[in-house]
Amino acid sequence: MNKPGLTICGVMSGSSMDGLDMAICSFDQNQNGSVTWEIKKASTSEFPEQLITDLLSCYESSSSFIFSVEQRFSDFCVDSLRSFIGTENLDYIGFHGHTIFHEPQDGFTTQIGNAHHIAQSLEIPVVAQFRNKDVALGGQGAPLAPIVEQYLFSDYKAFLNLGGIANLSVHNNANVKAFDITACNQPLNHLSSYFNKKFDDNGKIASSGRIDEGLSEKLSLLEFLKLKAPKSLSNTWVQNEFIPILENYDCPVEDKMATVVDHIALQIADSCKLIQQGESILVSGGGVHNGYMIDQIQKKLVHRSIFIEKPIDLISEFKESLLMGLMAYLRVNEIPNCLASVTGALRDSCNGIIYRSDL
């Protein structure tokens, strides 16, 4: 199947729980195989508080509750997309869904969101379920971002994403290594709630605290940090392993936030040993707007002359939506969109199920 020029709305619901990110993107492919692209417009639809609470509760709830949440989440997606798309003519929607379980070591990963419902409601075909085939092939089903980096940001060799979870990708020609590093915005947003804030604006709260060495040591002992790539994290891990350490440790919340930022920076710096001295790292994700965290990461990298670069805001904020659009584009054109060198799968694979709107 060859459909080179397509307009696709990429849709991402990430682990930071800040809303539904949507980006209408155009893709085309040159004769040499390179992909040209443009983000035509993008927006975030903020989740209602109750939906956030229910999504966070799914991993420890009954199946009937999960299906109920899935339907409400799907209705929210339909309403948000209908308002965002307006009169734009789309060929497809690339829909990630919201991850509630990610346990590739046990052979499964689950993203909720009824793609049939979205396709029929909007009368636009939806491409979804981008992780399951890779997991069936023995992979982690993550990270997915290296494919967008390979096709759309080939001028860089290193990429850092500061989302709910921090992850790193390093491209050395055909050899790509990518993996999750540690929790990032999720615990910081959790701690910000003690100040009745959804997030720590520019890291102001964290910068007012001090690093607690005892807490820092406890975080450094997390078993996941000792694992070698390929490896990936889930929201469940953050909720069950990371956040309880913060909750059970006695020190001011400001100090907890400062310590978490320092932990993130230390783990990133350690992971960046894979990057050659003098390289630049293209950083994306919501953490880009946390100036204090960016400064702490940069301080731990400067001795190796590794410097962080930020893309324009539209790409920084909607890179994962752009990724979903590209994943759908590659799937429709039957081109592999999941890299075995990244996930540990038996082979590269073309992931995604196409939910038709006309049949």
Report on this model:
It is a single chain. With 359 residues, the protein is α/β, with parallel strands linked by helices. It has two domains: 6-140 and 318-355, ATPase, nucleotide binding domain (Nucleotidyltransferase, domain 5, 2-Layer Sandwich); 146-314, Nucleotidyltransferase, domain 5, CATH 3.30.420.40. It has 13 helices and twelve strands. It has helices spanning 49-57, 63-85, 115-122, 132-136, 146-152, 185-192, 204-207, 213-220, 235-247, 253-271, 291-299, 313-332, 340-343; strands at 6-13, 20-29, 35-45, 92-103, 108-112, 126-128, 158-162, 165-172, 175-183, 280-284, 307-309, 353-355. The strands form two sheets. Strands 1, 2, 3, 4, 5, 6 and 12 form a seven-stranded mixed beta sheet that branches. Helix 11 (291-299) links the parallel strand 10 (280-284) and strand 11. Helix 6 (185-192) runs antiparallel to helix 10, helix 8 packs across helix 10 (253-271) and helix 10 crosses helix 11 (291-299). The two termini are 19 Å apart.
The helix fraction, in percent, is 25-40%
> Rg to the nearest angstrom?
20 Å
In DSSP terms (H or I, runs of 4 or more residues), the helix count works out at: 13
Query: What structural class should be given to the helix and strand makeup?
Result: alpha/beta
Taking the alpha carbons of the first and last residues, their distance comes to 19 Å
The fourth-level CATH homologous superfamily of the largest domain is ATPase, nucleotide binding domain
Find the count of extended strands (DSSP E, 2+ residues): 12
CATH topology of the largest domain: Nucleotidyltransferase, domain 5
Indicate the CATH architecture of the largest domain: 2-Layer Sandwich
Work out the oligomeric state of the chains in this entry: single chain
Q: Strand fraction band?
A: 15-25%
Largest sheet: 7 strands, mixed
Shape: globular
Domain unit count: 2
Output the CATH class name of the largest domain.
Answer: Alpha Beta
What is the element string, with H for helices and E for strands?
Answer: EEEHHEEHEHHEEEHHHHHEHEHHE
Runs with pLDDT <50, length 5+? none
Average predicted confidence as pLDDT: 93
